[in-house]
Amino acid sequence: MDARLNYFADPTAGKALKYFMSAGKALKDSSLPTATQELVALRVSQINGCAVCVDMHTKEAAAAGETSVRLNLVAAWREATVFTPAERAALELAEEGTRVADGAGGVSDEVWAYTAKHYDQEQLTALVILISFMNTANRLNIITRQPAGDYEPGQFH
């Protein structure tokens, strides 16, 4: 499959994505644990069906030491026993934050309160921005049919 657009060859995309990717770098540098960031990025990408982001975040998580068992169970995290309560809270927030069109209420007060029990203000802010960031990245890639499979860990760092 060929991509509909080459973001690297387009001057407008180059300008806009420079700023977009710097937001991603700020998230990477936040106090939100790396494992949580990669699990959330992967789950949002699974929900949205973004193959290139699933490829990227599976490989980045593995390179950061994440186990194949946990990566393989992200899609079924509710039934899996391998995630911490904090990770489970982040994954639930990620799902509700991604599926806002599916539920008229958006993120429930219960999910928000449970997540806030596990993360401080800075981490919670990073988590909310990460979920939003990943939804945007997914859409950029899905709309233009960016192909998956060739990503190398650290490629965009």
UniProtKB/TrEMBL annotation:
Domain of life of the organism encoding this protein: Bacteria
Molecular function terms from GO: peroxiredoxin activity
Domain Carboxymuconolactone decarboxylase-like as annotated: residue spans: 16-96
One Pfam family per UniProt: CMD
Bilayer-spanning residue ranges: none
InterPro entries in UniProt: AhpD-like, AhpD_core, CMD-like
Protein name per the record: Alkyl hydroperoxide reductase AhpD
Organism (species): Planotetraspora phitsanulokensis
